[in-house]
Design goal:
137 residues, alpha+beta, globular
């Protein structure tokens, strides 16, 4: 009989841009955001670092495109590798929100942000970045 083991998941961790200068962070529940990244586990802190790096990279990319940013958040989830050594096997990043008024600029801004994010470029696991725009955004 084979065991069906589900991989351990980390997060989600959120970095939230509300138009101000301070990044807000949330662990699992965006309603409980604070100015401090989560410290439940070292992996959650790592995910918060990636979330804030993507958020800042989106800010820089939007500025280079001459686009004003709207409030948005970055959601990051990790999955533990199924083999040794113990590590994060993959990370999914979702940029949530419309970002800018011109919808045609969203994909290029996010792609540029991924390419310039020092944290994602440093990690030794696949990091996928997608966008999700709410229907009422």
């Amino acid at each position: 009989m084979a065991l069906n083991v589900r991989p351990r998941k980390f997060g989600p961790v959120f970095a939230i841009f509300d138009g101000g200068d301070v990044i807000q962070y949330a662990y699992r529940d965006v309603a409980r955001a604070s100015a401090h990244p989560p410290t439940q586990t070292p992996v959650d802190t790592l995910l918060a670092s990636l979330a804030s790096c993507i958020l800042k990279s989106v800010q820089w990319a939007a500025e280079q495109h001459g686009a004003a940013l709207q409030p948005f958040s970055v959601k990051v989830e990790g999955v533990k590798a199924s083999d040794d050594p113990s590590r994060v096997g993959s990370i999914e990043v979702t940029v949530l929100g419309r970002l800018v008024a011109d919808e045609a600029l969203i994909a290029p801004i996010v792609a540029q942000a991924k390419s310039i994010c020092t944290v994602s470029n440093t990690l030794n696991c696949p990091v996928t970045v997608t966008t999700e725009v709410a229907a009422n955004a």
